[in-house]
Structure formats: structure tokens, C-alpha cells
Amino acid sequence: MKRLKIIDRKELIDLYLEAEEVKKQKSIPPGYDLLEWDNPNNLDTWLEKYGYKHGVISGFKQWAYVKLNKGDLMNCAIVAGIDIFCRMSQRLGNLENTEEFNRWEPNKKPVPIWYESLSRGCFKEKFAVIMRPACESEIKQGAKYYVEDGSGRMICYLRSILSLNSKSEMTAYLAFDPDESSSFLNEKLNKKFAGGGRGKYTTLEQTLQTIDEEIRIIKLI
Prior knowledge:
The protein is of the alpha/beta class. The protein contains 11 helices and 7 strands.
């Protein structure tokens, strides 16, 4: 993983909404200019009201824009459901040789704008994914990160570069610096980012060290 730059919560949400506008032709709803960028709970309410992902993207104060290598992709967990795999979260490296992984296609017509490009192993910056550090259930599978937005993109791209035996050019926004006032972070995700645990994720460097330590501990159990 290579750090490219650090952005704040507003920049991340701006980028996410712009990407949704491109991918789904979904215009930014009213009230956007009135949002309180220091209030994660009000941001959550607005995002949820208009059908956007919420919780994680408003719950962290900072995000690292990073370039992912092939190993990083293999160490990502995705949410698997009806549209992807009939399982819960799964580390992609554990699925590499499965029929589900090799045959998966997006269940949408027309197919998403990213599908053809990523199927050829051609990554474009506008296809960057959004991730957070893995939680307990994902760590137990060996995952370091969880894909909050972009599971389909990552499956498609990883499958392509494995087939082509090429290096990864994928980029991602990785969450760190959890907001102590976020109700979502305080009540969800095993309370991993709440209370005393919050201090383990204050900087990108602390976050990466914490992730590696958690993986090491799981392997010893």
C-alpha cells in the first residue's frame, strides 16, 4: 500500500456523491449545501434519507488516498449477499479459486460503467473504492480491510489482474481518525472504534500498525 494523500470527511463525501452521480445518474439531493460537516449524526441522517451509504463515510474524520497492491486486494473483505455471493463478509484471497469468484457478474442491466474496463484489467481513478479497517469477524478470516463501497469493482479488477498476472493500479480511500461523536461508530462495528480503541486509529501509521497487530494476534490464537 502506498500513501498518496490525506483528505478530510467533506472531501470524501464530495467524491462519493460525485461518483454516485456518474455511476447511477443520481443527482445530488437538496440540502447538501446546508450540511454540518462536523456533525456525523446529522450527516448520517441526510445520507440515509436519500438512499446513500452512511455510518462509516461520515463516522471518520480523515481518509488516506492510497494505491493498493495485489496483496492488499487479496486482504480485503467484502459484504456478500444476493447480488454478490451467498455468504457474509469474505476475504477475497479466500475466494480466489472458487467458482463463485470466477463466474461473478453484476446483476444489473445495463452493466455498470466500470465493468468493461475493470474486466480488462484497466483501472481508472474514478473507480476508486472506499474502505475501513477490518472488524473482528473479518479479521478472523484473515482480512485487513473491509470494502465499504466498491465490492463489485474490486472482485472484477482482482480477477482480471490475477488472470493477466499484472500488478495492481487500483486506488482506495482508507478510513482513519474515528469521530468520537459518531453514534454509528459508538454503537456498531463491535464498538471497535469507540472509547479507548479510538486512539489506535488516530493517524494512518497507527491504523496500519493496529491492523497488522490484530492479524498477528488472530494467527496466534
